[in-house]
Fold Putative auxin response factor 17-like.
Amino acid sequence: VDPTIWKACAGTSVQIPTVDSRVYYFPQGHAEQSSSPPLLSPLVSSQPFILCRILAVRFLANTETDEVFAKIRLVPIDRSRDLHVLQPSGTKPNCVGDEDDDDEEVVSFAKILTPSDANNGGGFSVPRFCADSIFPPLNYAAEPPVQTLSIRDVHGMVWEFRHIYRGTPRRHLLTTGWSKFVNHKKLIAGDSVVFMRNRRTGELFVGVRRAVRSNADCGGRGD
Amino acid sequence: VDPTIWKACAGTSVQIPTVDSRVYYFPQGHAEQSSSPPLLSPLVSSQPFILCRILAVRFLANTETDEVFAKIRLVPIDRSRDLHVLQPSGTKPNCVGDEDDDDEEVVSFAKILTPSDANNGGGFSVPRFCADSIFPPLNYAAEPPVQTLSIRDVHGMVWEFRHIYRGTPRRHLLTTGWSKFVNHKKLIAGDSVVFMRNRRTGELFVGVRRAVRSNADCGGRGD
DNA sequence: TTGTCGGCCGATCGCCGACAA
DNA sequence: TTGTCGGCGATCGGCCGACAA
């Protein structure tokens, strides 16, 4: 996944350290968060934290859920032992050297899906700011102003959406194509979509953030 | 899976040897047919065939495809080494001692699905013989004669079908419920369904046989 | 006897403006 | 500005008899 798109999908609360920077690795925290706890030697897991150098960072996305995550390869600074570490998105090692490398070549906008966006007649209310700053300008002379957007997801798959400006009062909507997207990505109210535009090329991208579900939200809906 | 139901699903061309009978095990054939070739010691795989005794037979069904298969545990007769062997349905070891244990407590009928059965308006043409010999008799005094059949698949899941006798000329059809079954089992024209009735209890069962697809049939339809 | 077709009816999908928060 | 609602037209699923193989 392109790192800039990846960062826009992950959001600004996620900071990934750069290669060669130094971080503290917390074995305990890694074991608690990982679905498949890492195999660590007792020597490693007995330490509360270990100063490491970052060898490599890979920006990835889950094939099924579209959720972004990074694989960060660490090497202890006082030892030569090599570790593979899976770093869940939304968390980060405590960075010692933190470099902000924001070139802002991608502008993005995120919206939490309302029940109407996720459930009802297959439409999406586009906030005015998103339509103005992300989508190509409509021809407002036309009646109604309408265009078809081709938007790439993190896998490179292209989705088409009918973008129309209508209703009284006027508002921006995504209609045809939206419902298929929601169903395919299994989005529900509370999840977020992220629309992005590359400032240079004008290319559009769409990402997905799943809502953090508390146990209470998980009832019913077994399939 | 109940062995009698299993056998009806597999069809008469499949013969599974009984426990304690002796068979020849062909390592080469096993390796060629298995999707995950067995790990065999060179001593075993270098032999063309090995006389074995059958320790245990388990009748199973694939959770996704409903296809039946058996796990047969063998032990070489001249050695004490123990092997786990997956026996694909539709093939069999060459039986030395073959016992036919058919008590015929289940009567079955198989039909290859026509395009109309699989694709069109959600109906299934029930061959007269199947309706007469497998399904409970309809009340032909009613207009139209109709009943709801509750039929169990190999996993024990119950499916409901509306069985009606109508049209000119009259014929047996499965209507409501059939389409859901076809979609859930991902059946296409050329596949078969097997209807079974337990003579003693009258209980109904339904099984599925996938058509053997040549490479030419596999084009398109990627999902 | 049974495979396929066109007709037709009802359910669902999804686009729409109205309205209010 | 935008979330939700009811209306309604188009589409689709699926039940039907006709007809022919």
User: Anything to note?
Assistant: The radius of gyration of chain A is 21 Å.
